[in-house]
Design goal:
Layout: E1 2-5, E2 8-11, H1 27-32, H2 53-63, H3 65-68, H4 105-117
Antiparallel strand pairs: 1-2
């Protein structure tokens, strides 16, 4: 958007939020208009990465590539053993499925089928035990 302030006109990016609060100049706008910082305020380090969400995402994806790779099933943990400890006399309970809004039912069904195909979920027939 075109912004006129302090006798200058700049083409800047604006972020619009739904609030009744006071509008703020972001750091990038302060830099564009060469505004001085208040006395005692200094900036130690500024990197372009802090303004670029794509760069942050790419850095995370690269740093944790093993977590986001398709080479193993999501949530697969190898080299560890686990045990589930139940209270003595614990009884399983079956709860009805939560309702899914009609416009989302196809997408939810597709995702459940996909998770079943890659062995993350398995179908379970609930018992008729009362809740």
């Amino acid at each position: 958007m075109n912004v006129t302030a302090f006798g200058q006109q700049k083409e800047l990016t604006a972020i619009v939020v739904d609030t009744d609060d006071v509008c703020l100049f972001g750091f990038d706008w302060c830099q564009a208009f060469d505004l001085k910082l208040p006395p005692g305020v200094t900036i130690s380090k500024v990197s372009a990465e802090c303004f670029n969400a794509d760069a942050k995402l790419n850095k995370l994806l690269a740093e944790f590539s093993d977590v986001f790779s398709d080479s193993k099933l999501p949530g697969t943990l190898t080299g560890f053993e686990a045990a589930v400890h139940l209270k003595a006399g614990a009884q399983p309970r079956a709860y009805p499925a939560r309702p899914v809004p009609l416009p989302l039912q196809a997408a939810v069904g597709d995702e459940l089928n996909r998770l079943e195909r890659i062995d993350i979920l398995e179908p379970v027939e609930p018992t008729k035990t009362p809740i």
